[in-house]
Amino acid sequence: MRFFRLLKIIFVVLRFGLDEFLLAHERTSWMLRPLNWLLFFRDVSRPRAERLRLALETLGPIFVKFGQMLSTRRDLIPTDIADELAKLQDQVPPFPSATAVALLEEAFGKPLNDVFAEFDETPVASASVAQVHFAELPDGRDVAVKILRPGIARVIDHDVALLQICAGLIERWWEDGKRLKPKLVVAEFEKYLHDELDMMRESANASQLRRNFADARLLLVPEVYWDWCSEKVMVMERMHGIPISQIAALREAGINLSKLAADGVEIFYTQVFRDGFFHADMHPGNILVAHDGRYVALDFGIMGTLTDTDKNYLAQNFIAFFNRDYKRVAELHIESGWAPADTRVDEFEAAIRSVCEPIFDKPLREVSFGKVLLRLFQTSRRFGIEIQPQLVLLQKTLLNIEGLGLQLDPELDLWKTAKPWLERWMSEQVGWRGFIKALRTEMPRYATLLPQLPRLLHQRLSVDVAAQVSPVLRELLVQQKKRNAWLSAIALLLGTALLFAVYTYFA
């Protein structure tokens, strides 16, 4: 099967002239002219990016999904290719309803009529990995049932293996191959795909996001019904709303589009900086708008995470950008470890200034924050800065949010909306408020450690009799006593801080 699939890929590559990517190297470019003469029947007059998009569409849903993911890696691929691949639409024909019923009965181990009071065999959505049907539970609750495509894991394994072969050829024979790291891109793609193949993982993502927005003030997330979930089936609350891409319908429903755009920005920054857990696939097909104007999130297969360190450095970076403090931006990249330690701050600062300074002369509403971030990533490559995977997901999501916000409200000023939120968040992370918050979080551990400090200090202050016989050991003992004095001071400070936190907490 893999052999015939490989033959089809080779045929499609030749049909759309993608051999240009492989043979563009100076050592092999001489082969292009005779190959074009032999394959005279093919049309290579279209731009290379368009031919690549058409080839991926011809090869099927997995390659389409790969093209979608590749379009977000603008830090790695040429702009013309990224722009064309962004046009790919994941419109996959559904698998037969009888197959869906059989898969559900296999997953539940009983007839479908014993599981659902009603089940609509006509799918409401179909994608490359799964499709969705509406149903009703025996207690009357309306649900959406997401079913993994049959045999999709095997198809993915075969196609990814072939993609790895193609990536190896590109890396070896294309002049930009090594710089673009196609093998790493395919490995990243494989990771995302396998994450999406586990419905239990997606269910857990949805549950976490719902808990993070439990007040439901801005964002509605469907409830997961765990008793009906498995690795191949996800059952969740059925959500109602208007697709966010239907602007005319939103206006007709009386939705305030300006507020909706601003709320989207707040949701994004709340997910990223408050929670460090964000929906990383926020394209219009995954968002509804409830009739009261709140966002409704769908499809939780791809989620991004950030550590506290990442969140802090990102927030400081954004604020430094807003303040045009390019030196601080350069320093933050080095301090965070994103840039090599030997990077010259002045050179990196000058490169950042060359990217940012021209855009600051424009009205902020004409500036794309996502594109600025993209150009900075491209500039960073010159300094040997490796793009962090979690930051690439963040950039992808930011571009989605920005494009969506400007579609809702062309006057949306993403920077003006973001800056007060970030400054408020930073004020909560530093100073006494941040200190007290951290102490409250660590209080249970401190409460266990504090009673042990006298015993630990006594052990450290105890004099080893054997140390008296050696001048060298006596010198070490003096140094140890100095360290012990510092340890005592730290213990006293810790105890005082703990008592203050306890008092503040219960006051």
From TrEMBL:
What subcellular compartments does it reside in? Cell inner membrane
Q: Where is the ABC1 atypical kinase-like domain?
A: 87-333
Question: Which gene is annotated as encoding this protein in its UniProt record?
Answer: ubiB
GO molecular function annotation: ATP binding; protein kinase activity
Q: Per UniProt, where does ATP bind?
A: 124-132, 146
Question: Can you say what this protein is called?
Answer: Probable protein kinase UbiB
> Which species is this record about?
Sideroxydans lithotrophicus (strain ES-1)
Cellular component per GO? plasma membrane
Q: Which GO terms describe its biological process?
A: regulation of ubiquinone biosynthetic process; ubiquinone biosynthetic process
EC numbers listed for it are 2.7.-.-
